[in-house]
C-alpha cells in the first residue's frame, strides 16, 4: 500500500496526533511479532497511532521507518522518542 497525502492532510494528522496518547511502546525487544500485531490492531482501530520508543532510543531513526514499512502505514512525523503513523482502515477504505 502506497499512501500519499497533501501538505494540508499531513498538517491535519499532525494536529490530531498532538492530543493522542501513545498506544504502542517499542521496548528492548524491538519490532517483535507481538509488537507488530499490536501495531496492526491499533492502526485498524484508530488509523492514527502514536508510538513511543522507550527502549532502543538510539535506533529509533532506523526503526521508525521500518515499522511504517512493515505495517504498510505512513510515518507522519517523529518528535523526540515518539513517532506518529497513519493508515486508513479497511472499514473506511472505499
Please explain how this structure is put together:
This protein is of the alpha+beta class and 94 residues long. The chain has one domain: Translation Initiation Factor IF3 (2-Layer Sandwich). 38% of the residues lie in helices and 21% in strands. The chain contains three helices and four strands. It has helices at residues 7-17, 33-46, 60-70; strands at 24-26, 48-53, 74-79, 82-86. The chain has a four-stranded mixed β-sheet, with helices on both faces. The protein is globular and about 35 Å long. The mean pLDDT is 91.
Summarize the helices and strands and which ones pair or pack.
Elements: H1 7-17, E1 24-26, H2 33-46, E2 48-53, H3 60-70, E3 74-79, E4 82-86
How would you sum up this structure in a few lines?
The protein has helices at residues 7-17, 33-46, 60-70, and strands at residues 24-26, 48-53, 74-79, 82-86. By secondary structure, it is an alpha+beta fold. A hairpin with a 2-residue loop joins β3 (74-79) and β4.
